[in-house]
Structures are given as C-alpha cells and as structure tokens.
Sequence to fold (323 residues):
Amino acid sequence: MEGPKIIFEIPIFGGIPVTETIVNSWIVIVFIAFLCKFLTWKMQKVPKGKQVLAEKLVLMINGLVEQTMGKDKMRFAPYIGALFVYSATCSLSSLVGLRPPTADLNTTLGWALVTFAMVQYNSIRSHGILGYLKGFLSPTPVMLPMNIVSEAVNPISMSFRHFGNIAAGTVITSLLYGALAAASTVILGWIPNTFISTIPILQLGLPALLSIYFDLFSSCLQAFIFCMLTMVFVANAID
Amino acid sequence: MERAIILAASAIGAGIAMIAGLGPGIGQGFAAGKACEAVGRQPEASSDITRTMLFGCAVAESTGIYSLVVALILLFVNPLVNML
Fold:
C-alpha cells in the first residue's frame, strides 16, 4: 500500500506535481462525457434501447431529490446527479485496475468543501446574514462554540468517511493479495522448477469474492451516502 | 535504536486504534436488527427501511473510520519518526 504516484510535474511555480489521482480523474471524466453523449445519441419520442437506461437514471435521481429535499428544491437535482455518477464511477474504476481517485483524501475533501460552501451560501440566502449569524446562538448563546465546531467538522467527517471506506478496500485487497501469494509459494514450493513454484495460484478467483463487497457494493453505497448527506445538509440549511 | 522503538510503538498504536471498530460494529448490528424487525412488521415498506438503515449505518460508521485514518497515518506516514 502506497500513496498515489507522481506521473509528471508541470514546470511552473516551482513544479506542480500531477499524481495518479488527477490523471485517473480525467480518464473518468472523459469516460463519463463519452457515456453521456453515447446514451443520448439520436433521442426519440418513444425511448428504446440505451435511451431507456439514461431516462431511468435521470428519473431515479429526480425521485431521490424530490423525496429527500422536497419539490421546491429540484434545482439541485443536476448537481446531485453529477456528483453521484462521478463518485460511483471514480470508485468503480478500481475494477479495471486503475487506482480509484476516491482513495485520495484530496478528491473527497474537494467535494465536501463544495457541499460546505453550498450549505453556507444557501443558509445566508434564505435567512439573511443576520438570521444566519443568529442561528449560531440557538438555543442559547452558550452553545456558540459547539455550533461553530459542529458546522466546521461536517466537511471533515464527510470526506473521511468516503476516503476511509475506499482506502480500506484498497489496503485490505492488497494485504489479501500478499497473503495469497505467500500461501501459494508454500503449496507449490516443493516443485523444483522455479517458474512453476512462483505462480501465485491462489490469487486466481478468490479476491473476486472480496471485490464484490469492496468494489461494487461499497462504491455505490458511498456515492449514495455522500449525495444523501449533501441533500440533507443543504435542505436543512434552506428550511 | 530510537527509530526502531518508534516504529514498533507506531505499529502497536495502530493496532490499538482499531479497537474503536468495536463501537460501530455493535451500533450497526443494533440498526440492522431493528430494520429486520421493521421489515417483518411492514414488508411493503422494505425499500424505505433499507435506505434509512444504510444511511444510518454509514453515519454511525464515522468513529470507526476516524480510527482507521489514525491507524493508516501511523502505519504508512510515520509522523513520529520525523520528530526525532
């Protein structure tokens, strides 16, 4: 287990390192852009084929936003949909062997800070600057430090939750690969041929079972949780 | 020698930090058990119950995730070695 590798450096401002995370994020972005173009290519009045899939996804996101935030806040649906698809695709990219961009705290902290800014902005917009400041003094002025801390800790807990789940998956998967390689050398070690005795035969198939939980289930669940928390916080800030 | 002691202490500390995983485990178990009861009582609301349970479980998980982050930092970043 090691951090994201630095692929190259941009030679301005004393060298800006471009890591694996950024490169993989752009791969995911390009993939999503092509997918959107492909799914909505030559749309028809009566949907069929790939258009059904796109409409199902949009309807699902719209239903979720309407149920969680209420009918009057449907303007957030495009952002939530983009966040969900991007987060899920980022985490699922580990299925094709890329290092998932969400296993880097920078990615998830960026999203969490966007949510934080949205919460503050919408709170000020709907309550006015005085009402917003007064909210920190409720229920009593003694609670002021507590309110500030509980507000400031939200982006940290949100980003750590997403990062921790995906990074734990990467760590445990790499530990399992190491253990299986060691176990297969024990099993095949008696064969005198060095090529055959170093084949990690146990690595075949077994990690796939773990991958179902860590890659498929956990990725989709964490994307859903992140969107859900964003919706709940923003809706609370407006009401 | 000092370095070896600090590395060993970091590894032990990472192990101890993960004891915090007990709490979320118990809490999520309670949540899942209650969700099972609720589905048994009202099978038609199972999709709503499942969604609420997953959401609650993920929020209850935060303390466990914090301990995981502490353990990962102790194991892979080794901040205490630089303080020598």
Remarks:
- Residues 46 and 125 of chain A are 41 Å apart (CA to CA).
- The mean pLDDT of chain A is 86.
- The first helix of chain A runs from residue 20 to 39.
- Residues 6-238 of chain A form one domain.
